[in-house]
Amino acid sequence: ILDRHGTIDKYMGDCIMAFWNAPLDDPEHELHACNSALAMFSALESLNDEIKAEREAAGQKFFPLNIGIGLNSGECCVGNMGSNQRFDYSVLGDTVNLAARLEGQSKNYGVGIVIGEDTKLSAPEYATIELDLIAVKGKVEAVRIFALLGDKEVGAKADYQAFISTHNAMLEAYRSQQWDKTKNLIAECREQADGFNLGVFYDLYDERTDHYLESPPPEDWNGVFIATSK
User: Which of 186, 181, 153, 191 is nearest to 167 (CA)?
Assistant: First the structure.
């Protein structure tokens, strides 16, 4: 985070909160945030390799560490928040709250980094996939959320370009209630997404599609998923 112009806000148990573009302006703050998130997972892979070697040498069972990250972009209040007796330099607002909700959804969708639509639009060359139209807990209005899979080098690869085309076709079929077509495209996505570790995500859409095959949604269904947990 610090190496990529971020400001560390606070530690909350096993969570770290950070933000960009304050106290100093950073015109590429979305890219720096995405790069920080990707760098965390790169470092996590090396750390797990190190821990695994230590555990195996000691004859102990290895339990890998894992993390989830939520990124969101937009306007918020930043400054010294609190009172004369106690205050912190921090950020507040719906943009910040949504970032926290996105982090909580990373486990549900089986992906490491969940980003909001404004962040995705500010990093158009990066490798991303749309996850869902979701009304997060505490909100009525749906937002479009994405998974960050890699930087612009990954996004430029032919394999990714072919995969994202199939993935987008799957979502289109799903939202237009073409369930058999959705199932077939999910199978194609699984084959093309090799290396992105998206098995849990496509299991989720397989389960939803099976449910709607038995109990179709109303004709005016807009494809929005209502989250009941943070």
Answer: 186
